[in-house]
Amino acid sequence: MDDCIFCKIAAGEIPAKVVYETDDVIAFEDLNPQAPVHVLVVPKKHHEHILDDVSAEELASVVEAIGEVARAKGLADRGFRVIANTGADAGQTVAHLHFHVLGGTPLGEGLIP
Ligand code: AMP
Ligand code: ZN
To answer: What is the C-alpha separation between 99 and 84, in angstroms, rounded?
Structure first.
C-alpha cells in the first residue's frame, strides 16, 4: 500500500535492522525500543490491524516468526511479551498489522502501565 512505512520496509524500499524474514513475514528492530529486546513481527501483506481479513496461514507465519525471533534473541528460556496494538484506544500509530516482541528484562506483571 502506498505511503505505508511497514509496506516499504517489507519491500526493502526503506532500511530496517532485519532479524528474520520469509516470503510472508519480516521481523525488524523497533526504531524506538521500549525494552532491551524490542522486535516488530510484521506480515508483509498489508492489513490495518488484527480485525482485518488476516488468513490462518499468515497468522501461522507470524507465530513461527515470533518463535524464531525469541530464540535468536535469547528470550525462549526467560520469557517475553507479545503485543498487537489495535486501533485508537490501544495507541496504534502504524496502520499496518504488527506484533511487538518485548523482552530481555523483567517486564512486570501488569499489562497496562
Ligand atoms: P504501534 O504504536 O503499536 O503502532 O507501534 C508502532 C511502532 O513502530 C513503534 O514502536 C515505533 O517505534 C515503530 N516504528 C515506526 N517507524 C519505524 C521504522 N521505520 N522502523 C522501525 N520501527 C518503527
Ligand atoms: Zn502496509
So the answer is: 5
**pLDDT (tens digit, 9 = 90+) per residue, 12-35?**
999 999 999 999 999 999 999 999
Q: Please name each of the domains of the chain with its CATH number.
A: 1-48+79-113 (3.30.428.10)
- Between 109 and 77, whose confidence is greater? 77
Average pLDDT of 56-79?
98
Question: 52 CA distance to ligand 2 centroid (A)?
Answer: 12
| Residue at 62: amino acid letter | V
Q: Does 46 participate in catalysis according to the annotation?
A: no
Q: Cβ(16) to ligand 1 under 6 A?
A: yes
The span from the CA of 45 to the CA of 34, in Å, is 25
Q: Is 30 in the pocket of ligand 1 (CB under 6 A)?
A: yes
